[in-house]
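Annotators were shown the component list below and the corresponding predicted structure, then asked to write short factual statements about the assembly.
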Amino acid sequence: MPDATGLELIAQRVREKVGDEAVTGTLYYRRHATLDVAPSSVRDVIAYLRDGEDEPWERLMSVHGVDYLPEEPRLGVHYELLSMERADRLNVRTRVGTDEPRVPSVVDLHPTADFQEREVFDMFGVVFDGHPDMRRILMPEDYEGYPQRRDFPMGGEPVIYTFNEPKLPRWYD
Amino acid sequence: MKAQQLLRGELEGEDLEREVEQRLLFTKFEEAQNWARKNALFPLGFGLACCAIEMITVVGSPRNDLSRFGAEVIRFSPRQADLLILSGRVSIKMAPIIRRLYEQMLEPKWVIAMGACSSSAGMFNNYAVVQGADKFLPVDVYVPGCPPRPEALIYGIMKLQDQIMGDPAMGWRERYRAEGTEEVA
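Structure shown to annotators:
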């Protein structure tokens, strides 16, 4: 179980094997271990965790995109790894800015990441380098913008109630 | 007996007039046509979301028995259907497909927006859902509800039948400023 100590040990091994600058931090919060890595070394870290560890983190359960709007760098990509031997999970997360959000793809290591990276690209605009088919998956192909970013307008239309109807003249047009 | 005589031309005068009055029914051609159309609505077998389940129980199940009102034959080809029931939320990715289905249907054709989502996007006031199906389709009847009760949908279909009886175009071309888009045989 990676408790706080085990997480530090994993981080230490990753630093030794992948590089000192790969791990930018660790977080142990509510019995959940998280490894912060630099965006350029995401693929190497996940490859090491899959192949190099004695008890490997061989399964990628999910890939998420996050937008931490007021903070910089804004966008985050979370990888949730599962180890059957340890019967435990490990989060690997990275942060990229919106100006050039590029993260190496892990599709060759974990084929399940294919659609999930496409979804992160669709909703947050993070480009995964090395992905075989980097297209939108949920929104139409000609859609503009990344709708799950926090600064994306909500869309839709103002809903008419009796109290705001006078404020919206000729709403029925 | 009287009918034989009528056909042979043997009836004359008052007898003939009484016989004709009893046996013939006069109507306008359009009314007869509309009567036939309203009692032979073929809904398209097409569902979008959770309202589709409700639509199936109304249109397809013997419990609600829509055939009482002459609209139960579901057609799974848009070329044979003339009623499109939009049952569920319309995402912007689905909208061109629905529009294409609608254009494949033969005229005269009608659309019912079933439920809050296809009428006005309901609670999905966001980037992914079309804010009301009438943004890209002429809708004839809006049935509110989330989902509508079966009675509500049946009532909507009966309302549509009333409109078909009144005027097959039902004014939607005028409402949507679409004069001149009629199909020409």
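Statements collected:
1. The radius of gyration of chain A is 20 Å.
2. Chain A touches chain B through twelve residues (CB under 8 Å).
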